[in-house]
Every structure is written in structure tokens, then in C-alpha cells.
Amino acid sequence: MIDDVLQELRDAIQKTQEALRRELSRLRTGRAHSGMLDGIRVDYYGQSTPIAQMATIGVPEPRMLTIKPWDKSSVSAVDKAIRESDLGLNPQVDGDLLRVPVPALSEQRRKELVKVAKKHGEECKIAARKARHDALDILAELKEAGDISEDDLERTKKKVDDVIAEASHAVDASITAKEKEILTV
Q1: What is the pLDDT of residues 124-173, one digit of tens each?
Q2: How many C-beta atoms surround the C-beta of residue 123 within 10 A?
Q3: E runs forming strands in the chain
Q4: pLDDT at 165
Q5: Contact 124/17 with Cβ under 8 angstroms?
Q6: Which pairing describes strands 47-50 and 55-61: parallel, antiparallel, or unpaired?
Q7: Which of 12, 33, 144, 182 could crosslink 131 through cysteines, CB 3.0-4.6 Å?
Q8: 100: phi then psi, degrees, rounded to nearest 5
Q9: What is the rounded distance in angstroms from the CA atom of residue 71 to the CA atom of residue 183?
Q10: CA 11-14-20 angle, 5° bins
């Protein structure tokens, strides 16, 4: 039972860390990458569709993205969705291909992106603390039911705290690495 609680806690923490990695990969750095467009959805025949599911995204140069929609009639919809996103990108239509130059980031924009990264890290830590709280509640219920002893409860609480501390260090390391990547000119 105790092992199940700890495993459930580790699974929850792993999910929050994967979500953090996804969010951090969407943040712009100085280089172009196809993951920058993951959060953009296009109104495609009445459906909100991710760009990656309706077009081929290429990175021919470090500061250029190319988007080739499979349906040529959706070029203007993709163009509109990119312009309306908060990425600050200005695509250029070239027939049935969109060229999206990725401008260099200003120092102010870099600092804003670092703040966003730290906010995502804090949200991940909050989710981990919530998982810790849930695990401790389950342990308390097991103690009340007489399924575990007081000593087992205290040992397991220490293990739970160790798992949370380890997760917090991993989040801090991810945020520090992303901060360094963002601030590198």
C-alpha cells in the first residue's frame, strides 16, 4: 500500500515535469524550431486544428520557418493564426508556402520570457506540492484505518518529502537551463 502511494506520487510528479518540458519548449529562444508553433491553432473548416496536423513545418535556416499547408486553400487561415498569436511573428505568403522569419529577441523580451519560464516552473512546483498533499492524505487515511503503523507513516512521510525535494531540484535545473538558453544572444 505504501509503495502504491509513493508510485502514484512519482507518476504525478513525472506528469507535471513533462508538462513543464512541453511549456518550456514552446518558449522562443533566439533560434527557430518547429515547436514554436505547437500552441497555435488554425480555424480549418470550422475546427480548431494545430498547424502541425495540417501542414509541413520546416526549419531551413536558424532564423526562418517554412510552413507548407497540405490544403492550399488554408494558407490564408494559417497566416492569420500566426499573426494573431502572441509570438510576434510576421509570416510572408509565397504562393502556397509561408515563410516565417524569426526576429532576434530584444533584451526586454528575453527578460519577459525568463519570467514566463519561471512562472511555468512555479506552477509545476505547485502541482507537485498538491500531489504531496494528496499522498499525505492517503497515508493519514491508511493510518486511521489501521493499515499502517505510526512508524511506517513517519518513514513514508520522509520519503514523500524526499521525492518532492528531488522534483523541486529537477524543476529548478530545467528553469535554469532554459533561462540560460533564452538569455544567450
Answers
A1: 999 999 999 999 999 999 889 888 888 988 999 999 999 999 999 999 99
A2: 15
A3: 41-44, 47-50, 55-61, 64-69, 92-94, 97-101
A4: 95
A5: yes
A6: unpaired
A7: 12
A8: -120, 100
A9: 38
A10: 145
